[in-house]
Amino acid sequence: MATENIIMAMVKAGGNRQECHEAIRVLSQEAAAVVKEQGRDNDLMERIRGSSYFSPIHGQLDALLEPSGFIGRAPSQVTKFLVEEVKPSLKPYANQLDRISELDL
After folding, report:
1. Residue 54 and residue 51: Cα distance in Å, rounded?
2. Which pLDDT band, with edges at 50, 70 and 90, does 62 fall under?
3. DSSP one-letter code for 27
4. Which carries the bigger pLDDT value, residue 84 or residue 103?
5. What DSSP character marks residue 99?
């Protein structure tokens, strides 16, 4: 998903979608090799930041990679589930929920 956002930003900045896709593919394969062969962390974003090809959008990368842009409606769906499903299910046990419990592992 993040790479698609990067491709779209590059196209908006005047880049060619196919060339951008190929540049991402090459960098992705290089990053995957580092993970698989050297056991290091995935450094794809560092590679993109270091690539002159992606320089037109280097200033946008932090915004494009903002985690909140990838969670969609999850927060409201969780809230709705808690209100409509969990809280009603807990009502029969309300008198027990006031007790303090302790768990030692």
Report:
1. 6
2. very high
3. H
4. 84
5. S
